[in-house]
């Protein structure tokens, strides 16, 4: 095999598998690489992901620059004393106004509203967390006091709340393939990748000896068939797992 990482193989393994099968020359590699990225997008978003974990510095205006290969976040937080990631809570109330401005804090704060609410509010705060009074009822512990976040994909930044006091965040995210860098996918999807390349390689060609309508239809059918088989091989159905799931469901039902 060209490149394998335990149960994962590289994109090149699928590309050269199709090149050898179709008896093509290597000059088609770059076209096939871009086609394989499109196939991975469809397969990956439905079945598997490549999660990357990075430690990113916090900018002076309480924002973090998103990596170029970012697709979607899995977890955002800080480390604890045993190497776990304590996740932050998503805060939809954070505004994206002036998120690229160095003076973002000054432009998005209004102390008058806070003072009016705090001193004139009918809510009774009955818990001192070490920093301020809060209502203990219904408030989850931990991460809200570390900070909250919001994603601004248009400006490629992560917004952090003003109470966030760390100089870094740990970002775990779904990464897209980058040309020139290795990218691995489960070995069970190798035949689906080859079938997908065989289909996309001729799908947009006009009907001719190389790409007639019947051949395109057969290749499309083969791709989705291999996709179905790959999913079954990648996460097979075990009777023991089904039995455990039924037992857990029955116990919950009995308790209710």
Would you spell out the secondary-structure blueprint of this structure?
Layout: E1 4-5, E2 8-10, H1 11-22, H2 29-46, E3 51-57, E4 63-65, E5 70-79, E6 85-87, E7 89-90, H3 104-108, H4 111-120, E8 127-128, E9 133-134, H5 143-146, E10 148-152, E11 157-160, E12 168-175, E13 184-186, H6 190-203, H7 213-234, H8 239-255
Parallel strand pairs: 7-10
Antiparallel strand pairs: 1-2, 2-13, 3-12, 4-11, 5-6, 5-12, 8-9, 10-11
Helix pairs in contact: 1-2, 1-6, 2-6, 6-7
Quick overview:
40% of the residues lie in helices and 21% in strands. With 256 residues, it is of the alpha+beta class.
Description:
This protein is of the alpha+beta class and 256 residues long. It folds into 2 domains: 4-49 and 183-255; 51-175, no CATH class. It contains 8 helices and 13 strands. The protein has helices spanning 11-22, 29-46, 104-108, 111-120, 143-146, 190-203, 213-234, 239-255; strands at residues 4-5, 8-10, 51-57, 63-65, 70-79, 85-87, 89-90, 127-128, 133-134, 148-152, 157-160, 168-175, 184-186. The strands form 4 sheets. Strands 3-12-5-6 form a 4-stranded antiparallel beta sheet, with no helix packed on it. Strands 4-11-10-7 form a 4-stranded mixed beta sheet. Strand 5 and strand 6 form a beta hairpin. The longest helix is centred in the C-terminal third of the chain and has 22 residues, at 213-234. Residues 119-124 and 137-142 have low confidence and may be disordered.
């Amino acid at each position: 095999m060209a490149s394998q990482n335990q149960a994962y193989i590289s994109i090149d393994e699928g590309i050269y598998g199709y090149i050898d099968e179709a008896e093509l020359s290597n000059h088609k590699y770059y076209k096939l690489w871009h086609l394989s990225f499109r196939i991975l997008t469809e397969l990956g978003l439905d079945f598997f992901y490549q999660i990357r974990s990075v430690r990113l510095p916090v900018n002076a205006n309480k924002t973090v620059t998103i990596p170029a290969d970012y697709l979607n976040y899995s977890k955002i937080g800080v480390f604890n004393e045993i190497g776990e990631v304590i996740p932050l809570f998503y805060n939809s109330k954070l505004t994206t106004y002036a998120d690229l401005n160095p003076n973002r804090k000054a432009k998005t704060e209004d102390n008058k509203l806070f003072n009016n609410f705090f001193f004139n509010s009918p809510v009774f705060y009955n818990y001192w967390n070490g920093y301020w009074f809060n209502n203990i009822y219904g408030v989850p512990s931990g991460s809200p006091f570390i900070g909250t976040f919001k994603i601004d994909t248009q400006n490629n930044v992560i917004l952090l709340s003003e109470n966030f006091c760390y100089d870094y965040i740990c970002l775990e995210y779904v990464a897209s393939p980058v040309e020139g860098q290795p990218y691995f996918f489960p070995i069970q999807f190798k035949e689906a990748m080859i079938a997908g390349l065989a289909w996309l390689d001729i799908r947009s060609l006009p009907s001719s000896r190389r790409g007639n309508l019947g051949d395109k239809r057969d290749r499309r059918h083969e791709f989705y068939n291999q996709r179905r088989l790959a999913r079954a091989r990648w996460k097979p159905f075990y009777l023991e797992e089904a039995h455990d799931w039924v037992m857990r469901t029955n116990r919950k039902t009995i308790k209710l």
